[in-house]
Every structure is written in structure tokens, then in C-alpha cells.
Amino acid sequence: MPKRKRESAVENGHNESSSDQGPKGGQNLVEVLPGITRKITACAACRKNKIRCDMPDDGPPCVRCRRRGLSCVLNRSLQSLIEDTKNVKLLQTDVTHLHDILDMLCQHIGVEGPKALTSVGHDREGSYPPADNDHNQTQQEEEGCEVSPPDSPSAVQAPIDTFLDIAKTRSPHSIDSPASARASRSGTRSDLISKGIISATIAERLVHRYFARLDHYLYGIGGEYQGLEQLRANGPILLAAICTVSALHDPQERVVYEACNREFRSLVAKSTFEKRDVDYIRALCISSFWLADASRICSSDAIRRAADMRLHRSFDALFEDRTGLGSGPMPSVLSPSMQDLSAATDRVRLWYLLFVCDQHLSILHNRDSLLRSDKGIAVGWEIYLHRAETTESDVRILSQVSLLLIMGQVRDVLGSDNQTPLPPALASQILNYSRQLDKWYTKFSALFVTNAFIGEFPKRGLQLHYQFGKLYLGHQVFKGLRGRPIPPHFVSAATMAHDTAVSIFEMILGEPELQEGLVGMPHYFHVMIAFAGHLLLQICQNYYEQLAINIQDDFQLINSALNLFRNTQCIPQHPIWRMTPGLNRKLHDCAASIGAPVPSAVPVGGLSAQHAIPGQEALYYPPVPTAEASQPLDELLFADFGEFNFPDLTSNFMT
Q1: Cα distances (angstroms) measured from residue 248 to each of 25, 27, 153, 254, 453
Q2: What is the pLDDT at residue 85?
Q3: Which UniProt keywords apply (predicted)?
Q4: Alpha-carbon Rg of the chain, whole angstroms?
Q5: Which of 294, 243, 246, 304 is nearest to 268 (CA)?
């Protein structure tokens, strides 16, 4: 056999023997490439002429090239270069391990850890592990990757199940299987601290602030986690979400917030096609309530994952068949952790919070909700309320569920995105919904108690949500009017909307608990407050004569609220900062359009930390017709809230 054919045969034989393993077994490129069959010692010139090359032990040039004055190049093969590449990667792994040990020692003695390694990139998970760990790591990644389409979340066989069985593409592990959970929790996962984004000291401060205060605004959604080490052991995304939210509420943490928010978005983007556990949904839920720019994306992803994990079927574990909500014995598809009553309770609370967040976003964005007609929510909340194990936080959550069910009926019956005036026949329906809101407030106001961490805020928040409900109901009668007079059968509802908006600002100015909670409450509060201000000014602009409104009192009320917002310490990304300039401009535009004086000289645009000067003369604006004077009130939810828009509609998670 010729020499070249023998070499080809050897190489083919090696490939055939190594093809059984394949790259899918966890081997990297170095291991699946052909091995070095013979060491090359001849230079390129001698090999070209097919003559003997006398190469000294110390390397080029060879005897012939030295004698002839030729360039002697020892052309090492690609296989030889791979050896060097593999050695470099192994060296990087050794350096990474040394860096991890040094970081652990720094944490142990309480000093700031070393900076993140630049040789392995910003993502430490992209470093090359030792060869004996390659298979385990690849197997974990495959187990954590969701098949498309995923397994059916139903307890009974679905059409997709038959297809997956035939196509042999069923995921080897269920979404909530113990093996998948072990795979996701095994190994060391880098987080904000190990990547050097923030120090352990800063992370400790952020986590402490969240659990000591912020978590109680959201009914203790943080669950059993109360410390930094617990969060780090759980995973990087929940830690990133909590640190981001906590930094948002500290006026001195702007840089920290930007860094944490960037990392959180990156982690969420990378996890789109991966399986995650309940705490991942918890992280998305936390971010949905507080991070306005990402709330819709995080909420929809959380709802999708909750449906795949059958989170709504946790009611079966609590009520079984005694309430009529269950379907008999516990189905086998539920994971073993669901047998634990506390785990089922936590999942039910999380499912309720996803419903609350979805309904909030439905109201804020004038869109249909994603969670509709869920029996556990529509019927089960009253049964859950009367359980012996119901806590103060449960009562607060269920008050929201009950209120949003009413507001959902208002949206479905009266419409939220059409621009046609309401028919007169709906006047009685508006009165009926108003009475339902009154009964709701009477029922739950008797159940609320003082919170040990945020004081009387839950009670004041209940009153504010009651006013939000009235405002949302009353503003419906302005749809499609476009500046025309209010029909007589809707005048009482229009007056209710005006009086409710006034009450909202009077509460904010008169209740210390609400003023302290301006930096802490979820962003739904801020958007509804901004909406109340815009609606109030729009009514003053178009209907102050028909409704006999004292516009100077309303202007003074809005101006006082603006002064409060300006003196509230927060970072520029906070909703208070973002909505204040727009509401200020709206006040001046409204006064200019009707020729009314503004109570005091308030700078237009931007935030000002200065108080209004007592006794300062009021500014007077002559009547100037503006296009905004005829703006339909049904467009207020899409109006300019002073840069307080929702960039998540077009945002890139990688930025």
C-alpha cells in the first residue's frame, strides 16, 4: 500500500474508532479530532523535494538549508497545534480554580475579593473545566434545556404527548423532576459576587434592605430566604433580582443598580430556553412588580413557566376534593415536593401574585390579561381566605385578587381599548360596579392589621387601591367624548372620577405612611398616581364648568404633590423621578389652555430639589388654544407620563 494511502487508512481507522463516542458524550473539540500518528521532523523545503532532512536536535535550520542559505521552516501539523491549545485551556482552568480559592479566602477574612478574571471573559461559566468534568457539565446542560414543544402541563394525555412519543423527542426528565432539580443545583454557578460585579459587602447590604423592608410591600414573596448565603446557594437569578430591586430604592446606589440590572437582564435572556425551578419564577415575579421597564417581559415569561410547572394545580394539594376545586386524589404528575403542605402553600401564593401582576399590567397597558377564567383564582380565593393557616400576607394578597376580579369585569364589560362612547344602558352597570367596590373595601378593611415592618402602610394601601378602582371605573365614561359635554346619565360617574383623583392626592399629602412608601411601593402605585394626576387635569381642562370644579384648588393640590415628589430622594431610574416632569408640564399646559394661574413658579421639565417660595406671586397664562385641549381621555393611559413610558416594549435584554 502506498505511503499516502497507509496514512489515510490509519487516520480513517482512528476516526471510525473515535466516532462511537462522538462529541455529544461531553468531549470537546480536542478529544474528537484525530490523534498525532507520527512526529514531523522534516522541514518544508526537504519535504517538497522528497529528500532526507538532517535536522539538528536544537531545531531549524537543517544541514541542507544552512548550506544553501534557504529559509528552513518546520511545518508543524494542526494536530501538534491542538496540543498547545489544549494546554492553554487547561492552564486557564487552573488559574480559574486559584482565583476561586482566593475569592473564598477573601470572603472568609472579610476583605474585598479579587477582580474578575479577564482571560476567561465576563462569564465564568464559559471557562473550560477539567476533562473529567466535561461529560457531567454537558449532561447537566442537556437536562436543563427544554424540548420544543415542551411536555404537556396537563394531568391527562394531550395531543402533543402522542406526537412527542412518536417523534422520540420527549424530554428525558419532567420539568419538575428531582433529577432535573439536582442537575440545575449541582456544580458551582457564578453570580454577581463571584463575577466581581458587586462585592459581598454591598450584596449583604442590598439583601438585608430587601428582606427588612421591601419584601413586606409585596406580601413576603421572598419566601424562606432571609440571607445572602441562602440566596447564593439557590442560584444567581434570584440574587440578581433582589439586588436590583433593592438598589433601585437607594438614592446612593445608582451605579450599583445599573450593574445589577444589566446582569439580571443578561441572566434572564440566557435562560429563555432553559428549564428553571420555582425560585426562578419568584425572581421574575419580584422584578415584574418593581422594574417597570421589564415588567411585561418578566411577567409573561413567569406565567409561561408557571403553566408548564402546573403551578395552578397546587390548589389540589391544599383543598383536595373537599372543596370541589380538586379532582379527587393527588395526581401522580405532581412532584414529591408538592406533598409538603408548606410548599403547596408557597406555590399557591406565587400563583396568586402572578395573577395580581398580570391584572396590574392589563390595567396599565390597556390589554387583555393572560390569566383568565382560572377556577382556583375566581372561586378558590374565598376558600383560601378562611383557612386556619391564613396569614396577614395572605389576606393582603387575596384582597388584591378580589379587587382585580371586579376591575377585570369592568374592563370586559365597559371595554378598555375602544374609542366609542359608552351606551346609556351601561350607567346602571357602572353603579353596580361602584357598589361592589364599596362592599370590597368594607369587607377587607376589617381584616387588615398593622404590619411589624412597614407599619400602617397595608391599611393605607388598601384605601389607595380602593380609590384606584373607583378611578378606573369612573374614567370609562369619558371615552370617545373628545371634548364634547358629558351625557347627563354619566355625570355622576364623571364626578366620582374627579373626586376620586382628588382623594388620591389628598391621601398622599396627608398620610405619612404613603409618603414613606413612595420609594418602596411597587411601580403600579406610581403609574396609577400619575394617571390620576393627568385625568384630574384633563377634567379641569375640559369639564370644569359642567362639573362646577374649583380649578385653583385642584391646581394647588397637584402642585403640592409635585413638591413632595421633587423632594423624595431616589435615583433617576425610579418611577417617582421619571413621572414628575411630565405631570409638571401637564399642569402648566392645562393652566395655559384655560387661562388660569398656576399656584407657584414650578420649573418646567426636570426635577428640582427646591421648595416653593412662600408668598411668591402666581403666574398667569393667557388663553392659548392647544391641540392637547381636545385629547380624548381614553388615551390617557397611553399619554406622556413624563418619560414614564415602558421601554420594555422594544428593549434589548442584553443591554
Answers
A1: 44, 43, 36, 7, 19
A2: 67
A3: DNA-binding, Nucleus, Transcription, Transcription regulation
A4: 32
A5: 294
One-letter amino acid identity for 177? S
Assign 3-state DSSP to the chain and report helix, strand, coil percentages, each to 5: 60, 0, 40
Closest alpha carbon to 357 in 275, 284, 463: 284
Q: Say how far apart CA 25 and CA 289 lie, in whole Å.
A: 42
Domain count for the chain = 5
Q: What integer pLDDT is reported at residue 116 of this predicted model?
A: 74
Domain enclosing residue 293, as ranges? 200-309
Q: CA-CA distances (angstroms) from residue 326 to 311, 315, 337, 430?
A: 14, 7, 18, 35
Q: What is the predicted pLDDT for the residue at 619?
A: 32
So what's the pLDDT on residue 39?
63
Cell of 377: 383564582
- Report which DSSP code applies to 422: P
Residue 145: left if φ>0, alpha if ψ -120 to 50, beta else—which one? beta
Side-chain half-sphere CA neighbours of 46 within 13 A: 22
Positions of the chain with pLDDT lower than 50, given as ranges: 1-33, 35-36, 79, 121-153, 170-187, 321-339, 601-655
Tell me, what's the pLDDT at 567? 95
Cα distance between residue 481 and residue 471, in whole Å: 17
* Domain shared by 16 and 100, yes or no: no
Euclidean distance between CA atoms 98 and 118, whole angstroms: 14
Preceding omega of 130 cis (within 30 degrees of 0): no
- Neighbouring C-beta atoms of residue 13, cutoff 10 Å: 11
Same domain for 580 and 607? yes
pLDDT at 73: 80
Domain boundary residue, one of 121, 150, 181: 181
Element (H, E) at 291: none
Nearest partner of 223 among 209, 236, 210, judged by Cα: 210
The whole-model pTM stands at 0.69
**Gap between the Cα atoms of 489 and 199, Å rounded:** 62
Residue 57 phi, psi dihedral angles, 5° rounding? -65, -30
Grid cell in block for residue 514: 404613603
- Domain identity same for 55 and 107: no
Query: Which residues lie closer than 8 Å to 66 by C-beta, 6 or more apart?
Result: 72
SS3 451: strand
Contact 146, 110 (CB under 8 A): no
Report if residue 392 sits inside a domain. Answer: no
177 and 222 belong to one structural domain: no
Assess contact for 357 and 289: CB atoms under 8 A: yes
| Residue-wise pLDDT tens digits, 442-451 | 999 999 999 9
CA angle 225, 227, 229 (to 5 degrees): 100
Burial 619-647 (b: 16+ CB within 10 A, else e): eebeeeeeeebebebbebbebebbebebe
Q: What is the pLDDT of residue 433?
A: 97
Q: What is the pLDDT of residues 273-314, one digit of tens each?
A: 888 889 999 999 999 999 999 999 999 999 999 988 888 888
Give domain status of residue 605, yes or no. Answer: yes
Rounded Cα gap, residues 261 and 142, in angstroms: 28
